[in-house]
Amino acid sequence: MKYRIAFLSTLIMLMLSHNVFANKADILTLEEAITAAIKQDPWLKGSQYREDALLSNSVSASSLPDPVVSIGLANLPTDGFAFDQEPMTQLKAGVSQMFPRGDSLDIKRKQLEELAKQHPIMRKDRIAKTTLAVSLKWLEIYRAQQTISLIEQDRALFEQLGDVAQASYSSAVGKVRQQDIVRAQLELTRLDDRLTKLHSQKEQALAELLEWLSDDTAWTSNQMRYRQMVSLPAATPSIKPLYVDAEQALNSHDAQSLANLLVAHPYVLAIEQKIRASKTGIDLAKQQYKPQWGVNASYAYRADDQLERSRADFISVGISFDVPLFTSNKQDQDVSAAISQTEAIKTEKRLAIRSLLSQLQSAYAAHLRLLQRETLYQTDILVQMSEQAEASLTAYTNDDGDFAEVVRARIADLNARIDALNIDIDLLKSRSQLNYFFSDGQDVTHRIGDNS
Known about the structure:
Layout: H1 2-25, H2 30-39, H3 42-61, E1 68-74, E2 90-99, H4 104-171, H5 178-212, H6 217-220, H7 223-229, E3 237-239, H8 247-251, H9 255-262, H10 266-286, E4 293-301, E5 314-321, H11 331-397, H12 403-437, E6 448-450
Antiparallel strand pairs: 1-2, 2-4, 3-6, 4-5
Helix pairs in contact: 2-4, 3-4, 4-5, 4-10, 4-12, 5-12, 9-11, 10-11, 11-12
Family: Belongs to the outer membrane factor (OMF) (TC 1.B.17) family.
InterPro entries: OMP_efflux, TolC-like
Protein name: TolC family protein
């Protein structure tokens, strides 16, 4: 029996250690979530394909059009269909080559290359946006998880308070009333309701996060299983701010300096690259004023006549070109349209900078208020709430307080700690939002860690 107990104990320990390692394997850090989302983003792959397509088109656009070869039988008499009957009957073979207007081939190639250069910049902006979106989803899951942990810790305390009240009421010791017991049970029920709501919020946020990771083979095998088993680390992540160099301009509300910084944002740079391509389009439209040239050459074979006398063959060489005389309804309008298109994109750039500037200033103002609230909670509110809860419990223990006041103080203390947690999470979300405005779309995961 002794050996059996030892064997079973060892087996249980091994099973418990296996479960611990299994749970560790299912912990999803913020860095892992961002890395997986970027790696599996189909938009980035599609952008790469579109860039490759534009580069391939630029090569083909810089090539001359294919020469045209013609073969024909000319002037064949219909009264006998004899090739040697008439001297004008010929078997002709010719070739012609058209040359585009001016430098339109090189300009078209350059325009397509400029459009292709836009995609790497757009991918940087996409990476920055993906980092922000995944961070916000992850932090919502973390908020729910940590709030659940706080409530579950306090729920045990409320159960103990209820048991003490029940025992005091049964023994007729103290001033416990039946309504105090009902109040304790009611608070436990309300805590259970909050836990149910928080579990629902966590599951919804996790489902939204898994959408970004749906192409990862580690997740697609059984997403429902991961929705129930994946948990986040208990340590609060640290997100390095990227706006340190801009804080002086942010605090002084220097809109011009901030706008100058936002010009380097990938979203704005992509529009700037689009403007360059559009300007090239103006040069391309101006090439329409130049004539389009073509050359042609042909060789005509004639058969000997019916008396077997030799006939000379013919060689023909020529050039062709069009004359752009009536430009007011075509070339002028094409150039005007290209100029207007460029100016429209410039307007798009100005609107983008204005929008980013407004969002940045709004996000930073909210961030400062959150910092103020964090200081207030850490220095005053949490301390006062804890002291109030302890004081009410001490008074009740000494038979000098009201049970309802103990419950209210404990609920207020719990709510204050949850509010402090929400402020911490909102600060991390705010920092992620501010980082987007100063992100270059490069290595983003090195800025994320865990606070021990």
